[in-house]
Structures are given as structure tokens and as C-alpha cells.
């Protein structure tokens, strides 16, 4: 049974996930600082584990359809730790997109309901981006890329 109540463990998990994203952002801003990136990754993974539980986290990362994302995220984290942060972040970004690709439609609905910024996400191009992100990305589907060049 899934519990949607917000207890202290879930609040701490959301806070850790937020700090993980913040430290990863700072690591990118400070020219791929491997210390900040590694700290951001550890905080994000521990935050996800606290938010949804350790068993659910292991089940999520060990699903057969998530193996590609899990492996690329793990290898990217390894590259960040050994000192190759750019390659590591590219692999982690790919792994993140593959792992959480099932959540993009939910995120699109949430972003469309934000009072001030929602109208940006209700336009046709951004709607196609959200629906086509799993099928090669949204930029490829723009009309300029569909032209046949002579």
C-alpha cells in the first residue's frame, strides 16, 4: 500500500534530493567541480532512498527496463569520482533521462498548471517536446529538421 502522507522521513528525503540537485547545479556552474558533483549525487540518491524507501529504491533501479539508465548513471558517478566530471555528467544525464522517462508526462501536466509559467508549456512546440522526448527528443521533430536538403 502506497502512503502519500508527508512524514518526517519523506520531508528529509525531499530536502536531501533538493540539496543534491542544488550541489550538482553548483558543480556544473563551477566548471564541473568533481567534489560538488559527487556530493550532489550522494545527496540526491540518499534523498530518493529516504523519500520512497530503500526497498522501493532498489526495486526501481533494478527493474529490467531501467538497467540501461542505472548502469549509465552508476558509471557516470564513477567517472565523476575518479576525476572525469564532464564524461561522468554526460553519462549521468543520459541515465537520469532514461530512468525517469516515465515521469515526463506527469511533470508536463504539473508544469502546465503553474499559474505564471504554465502558458509556456501549453504551446504546441513545448507540448510536442514533452510527448516526443522519449522518441529521439523534441528538436529533431521541429519542421526545420524535416526539410529535405537539395
Map the helices and strands:
Layout: H1 8-29, H2 34-52, H3 54-61, H4 67-82, H5 85-99, H6 104-112, H7 124-132
Helix pairs in contact: 1-2, 2-3, 4-5
Family: Belongs to the GOT1 family.
Keywords: Golgi apparatus, Membrane, Transmembrane, Transmembrane helix
Pfam families: Got1 (PF04178)
Helical stretch count?
7
- Contiguous low-pLDDT stretches (5 residues minimum) are none
Radius of gyration, taken over Cα atoms and rounded to an integer in Å: 18 Å
Largest sheet: none
Mean pLDDT: 83
| Helix/strand structural class | mainly alpha
Tell me the span between the first and last alpha carbons.
59 Å
The amount of beta strand, in percent, is under 5%
Features:
150 residues; mainly alpha
Question: How does this model look, in words?
Answer:
The chain crosses the membrane at residues 12-32, 38-57, 69-87, 93-111. Keywords: Golgi apparatus, Membrane, Transmembrane, Transmembrane helix. The chain has 150 residues and is an all-alpha fold. It is 65% helix and 0% strand. It has helices at 8-29, 34-52, 54-61, 67-82, 85-99, 104-112, 124-132. It is globular. The N and C termini lie far apart (59 Å).
How would you summarize this macromolecular structure in one to three sentences?
Helix content is 65%, strand content 0%.
